[in-house]
Amino acid sequence: MKLLKSILVAIDFTESSDYVLKNAISFAKTFKSKITLVHILPDDINNEKVSLLVKTAATSKLKEINASINNEGLETGEFVLEYGDYSDKVVSAADNINANLLFIGSGNKLKEEAFQLGSTAEKIIRKSNQPVFVVKNGETLNIKNIICPVDFSKESTQALNSAIIISRMVDAKLVILSVYPYFKYKFTKLDAAKMNEARHVEHTKEFEAYLKGFNLIDLNYETQVMGGDPAAKILKSIKKNESDLLIMGTTGKSGISKILMGSVTEKVVREVPCSFITLKDEDVVVLELESKIKDIENHYNLAQKLFKNSFFEESIQQYNICLDINFMHIPSLKGIAEVYEKIGDMDNAKKYNEMAEHVMERIENMRIEEEVRKQIKR
């Protein structure tokens, strides 16, 4: 099972990119991902000999880093070494290898609790179709608390799906936050407090209905609803919950859409105290089942892994493959029953338990018949 197949890591051989690489390796180990390195050389070196020396040195360094990644037990792709505009070339490399996630550095650190997003990093976020993981400068991630703001848009839905899977895989607590704007009536007789209270009730109901579309079974999570300026409330919640990682969409229907793509950008990137992942068009994690598994044991083991990580629909699919191979495979029948029990579908749970019992009776009868035949032959 591979959830995050391909990671592209942008490095510039500085100390800050060492942190980016270290965190990418940690992520790749969790998700069994392949890492591909990308390094962009300046295209304004006029001296041909100097340009060749720089390229040779960069090639040697990239080979050395690839070897160190392999020593960690990870697969590496052929590194990308090109000349040109940094952000354009990095984004192009991510497209070319169909990366599931692009790791980059955040920029220069301003103070202990915040960092300034560099202009290059911001350009990559704006241009990239792939999800981008921005690693806070000087930080080694130990992800225990994840926060995901949602505004019910397609983009925030993608972000939340990825946040749920990542939370499960790294055993982190997930805070799902939804912010609604306050109504302000400076020049009317309307009671703003009562209007905002009603808005809170209405938004909470919409939030609860929205969350029913997600698999939150056995997930360590909590929900938060806040009213006010989205950027300010998200930052407040990050600090309050001591979040290690923010996962969010970069476009949407509310103020959240402006955080990285509009007028609120500058404020948020100056104050956000943690690393973050942004999504635009694609999910971070994509469930990709191995296609070469042929025997029933591997399908059954895969089904159990999927069930353990709460991929219930996919787990049932794998159990059914086992039953296609052998319709009397009792562990798969019981496995499907267990899945249905977990999701509260007791009718189907009962159905498959009864099927398992019927198969056991049939096997027992066949065993008895075989013994009788042996006795007759004697």
From TrEMBL:
Residues 5-136, 143-277 form the UspA domain. InterPro entries: Rossmann-like_a/b/a_fold, TPR-like_helical_dom_sf, Universal_stress_UspA, UspA. Transmembrane segments: none annotated. It holds the Pfam family Usp. Belongs to the universal stress protein A family. This is Universal stress protein. It comes from Hwangdonia lutea. The lineage of its organism: Bacteria, Pseudomonadati, Bacteroidota, Flavobacteriia, Flavobacteriales.
